Amino acid sequence: SGFTPLTAAIEKEYPYDVATKILAEHMSNALSKMVEPILNKGGDIIKFAGDAVLAVFTLDTHKTIKRASTVATCVARSLSSMVITTSDGHTLKIHCGVGYGKVLGMQVGGILGRWEYAITGEGVYGATESESHSESGQVVVDHKIGKYIEPIAKMEKIDLNPPLFRVDSIEGENDTEKIDSALQFYLKALNKSDASKLRLLAKLVRPYVPRPVLERVDGGGDIFIREHRRCTTLFIRIIGLRHESADDLPTIHKAVKTVQKEMYSFGGATLC
After folding, report:
1. How far apart are CA 165 and CA 159, in angstroms?
2. How far apart are CA 20 and CA 31, in angstroms?
3. Of the candidates 84, 95, 74, 92, which has an alpha carbon nearest to the alpha carbon of residue 137?
4. What is the pLDDT of residue 96?
5. Of 101, 113, 122, 164, which has the highest C-beta tally within 10 A?
6. Would the pTM of this model clear 0.70, i.e. be above it?
7. Minimal CA–CA distance to 120: which of 247, 211, 31?
8. Are strands 153-158 and 44-49 parallel, antiparallel or unpaired?
9. How many CB atoms lie within 10 A of CB 145?
């Protein structure tokens, strides 16, 4: 939290082109500090949304529900304790929500060769609901996480139905042991790959890269975009989907394709 007043302050003080560069540097610095603890504890980052990060800690890496719940909460505690001071004296703080449950990962879209990878399910909803009840410097977990970490955490109950829990401390939050995620194992193997494999990977990843970035890459420009654009944002939510299985995947896929088709016809872009 803190990016909105920071953005307003910078825009008042500097011309748009300078303000955009400064804000991009601040956001890059803040996100880098958020990313490192997640990756160091075996988390995988699924999506960036403005100044927010969506990450998962899977049983593939952490083996048990209790272990994954504990590690995720420890990382959240580590992040929430950060106070990031920008070079011009503004203060940025972090707050986190943690949820547990099944998550459905899906590749959807495909219009004009553009694809989206998205996740949904009770684990995501638990995290977003918890985050909405947290304030700067706080970690809030859902009732399922609370059950698993209760023996090793100091928590305060938030009276909702089902309840949430504000975590004041948890054993192991200062542990420095690193845990490799499946992604990090893959990246280590990739570093030893030959050029042909890297070219193939670039071809496979390309459909998931946002269009403004691709335009810069194809044009030979700097991929680190720092642009100030005035735009209208449209938020669309599909109501009534089930998340226990992949049964609704065809419906989600069709919906995303429909949105892509309409957005692209007007020069827009999509983010799932």
Report:
1. 9
2. 16
3. 95
4. 93
5. 164
6. yes
7. 247
8. unpaired
9. 33
